[in-house]
Design a protein that fits this description.
Blueprint (H helix, E strand, L loop, with lengths): L13 E6 L8 E9 L11 E4 L4 E9 L2
Antiparallel strand pairs: 1-2, 1-4, 2-3, 3-4
Length: about 70
């Protein structure tokens, strides 16, 4: 699945995001989506989300969906 398409993402899904401070290094942070912040149907750099731990970033990978 593609993290650039909003319809592919659901609250409760486990994803890997890149935080603003980690954009240069590309370091990914894993977590569970609490809220989808991007309103556009797609975004070339990834849909912006907030994780349950409060981290905000753009989805790079979808890890798991139960």
């Amino acid at each position: 699945m593609d993290g650039q398409i909003r319809d592919n993402l659901v609250v409760g899904m486990r994803v890997a995001i890149v935080l603003k401070k980690d954009q240069r290094s590309g370091k990914l942070t894993e977590g569970v989506i609490e809220k989808i912040l991007t309103s556009a149907p797609r975004h070339t750099r990834g849909i912006k989300v907030r994780l349950e731990d409060g981290a905000v970033g753009r989805v790079q990978q979808i890890i798991e969906w139960d």
